[in-house]
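Protocol step 4 of 5: obtain the predicted structure for the target chain.
Materials: sequence only (see below). No template structures provided, no constraints applied. The aim of this step is simply to have a reference model before the mutagenesis design in step 5. Sequence pasted as it appears in the construct record:
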Amino acid sequence: MQTGLKGKHLLREQDWTNEELETLFAVASELKMRYALDLDTEWLKNKSLFMLFFEESTRTRNAFECGITQLGGHANYLTPKATQIDHGETPKDTIEVLSRMGHGIGVRNTLVGGNKWMQELAKYSKIPVYNMQCDLWHPTQSLADLFTIKEKFHNELKGKKFVISWTSAGKYMRPLSMAHSLVALMPRFGLDVTLAHPKGFELMPEMMDIARQNAEQYGSKFEVVHDMDEACKDADVVYAKGWGPIMTVGDDEVRGVEMINQNPGWIVDSRRMSLAKKSAIYMHCMPADRDIEVTSEVMDGPQSVIYDEAENRMHTIKALMALTMGNTSARR
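Step 4 output (structure tokens):
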């Protein structure tokens, strides 16, 4: 167990060792149990968390806000418009000031360049910076996902087949960050990862390299297929969500939505779940487009763990904050 995490940023999963992540999961388990028993967890009393959202959120905002409250602290909700960021204040000046007032900051910025903005913020920050999702990574979601899988399979993950599949969700272009985080993280904990998508919906080459390297290092498998049925066969975990063909069309929303709608039928239904193992679970980070990405039958069925997964956002985020948010005397 590695406990010397005070002040540590979470910008991507790759920056944390497996030992550090196992520490986070151990703390999350204790916090979840104490939550169930209504026991006190005011471990961050009088601490302030800044939450800077460049776009709206349901699960991420409430997981952080409820989480810091349960830990005895307070959350400040910020937006670029409600601060001087929209008027051009730099990440450096923003965080130099906020570092003197609070104890941690989470940022959600999935716009093009969002990760770069967070990296600049972290460069000058004296308090931990949490990536609430950017254009490249979504670490607080993937950690909750892994925590959920560990719960459901009693920590016996070696050789389990984890499928991350694209779905035909054509309302708008979603970022690549969720898929990036999943393919990079899951092989590190023994899961054999199958990535499924139509041609034209590839992930970034750098992230694919990380996924392959992690699979090799940890003795896992990583493969790419272009058929959803093939992917779901004998799966232990079916995790299916949409993303845009960003590597093909860039940020051209019109062309991207057209490409998505040219690939109908990528949906999780009872037939596809029947291809997986009987013990398989269905996962989605939400919001899911009901009866477009996944049928209501599956989403509300016995194999679905989406609400457990959503609750675990809060517990893993509480563990993250408890381990990394120190007092002002501990600032770097």
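Step 4 remarks: The radius of gyration is 19 Å. Strands lie at 48-53, 74-78, 104-109, 129-134, 161-165, 192-196, 222-225, 237-240, 281-283.
Proceed to step 5.
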